[in-house]
Amino acid sequence: MMEQVNLLPFTPEAEAAMRFAYQEAVRLHHQELGTKHILLGLMAARESAAGKVLYRLGLELEPTRRMEERLKHTAELKEPVKPELNQPARELLDTAVKEAREAGQQQISTGHLLLALTQVENGVALDTLRHFEITPEQVQAYRQELLYGGG
User: What is the pLDDT of residue 108?
Assistant: First the structure.
């Protein structure tokens, strides 16, 4: 599916979110899997720590998905594709590993992914959050819940 760039395993919820992100990239015929796909994956994992935080902040999957479809920041093809992680997504995963390690955890959770997402300045997902008037600081306010709330 995707090449492994991290040195820690994902929690089941984070793995499901990443699988959904990959499926979204394939569905949209995108050659690259980016932060916008990961954001959609985190939203799809609604019962995870990140999913709960995003919904509390007012983000809903379908309106976000429709907005993301309008943001054509990646090359789009019509034939079947096998998306590869783009540089912002790699940076997000590297940052998620650091978040997990700093919290003394052995797996990357959806919380680590969401916190990392707010730190990737060149990722489309951060632009999406800002479009919906959600700031990185608002997400960071949930830091404890994201790091220790499971998912």
Answer: 96
Closest Cα partner for 6 from 134, 121, 95, 102? Answer: 95
User: Which tokens in the block code for residue 85?
Assistant: 């992680």
- As a whole number of angstroms, the distance between CA 90 and CA 107 comes to 17
Which residues does 34 contact at the CB level (< 8 Å), separation at least 6? 25, 73, 74, 85, 86, 88, 89, 123, 124, 125
**CATH level 3 topology of 12-148:** Double Clp-N motif (1.10.1780)
Report pLDDT for 87: 96
Q: What is the pLDDT of residue 149?
A: 75
d(CA 89, CA 72): 16
Burial (Cβ within 10 Å: 0-12, 13-18, ≥19) of residue 90: middle
Q: Which regions in the chain score pLDDT beneath 70? A: 1-6, 67-80
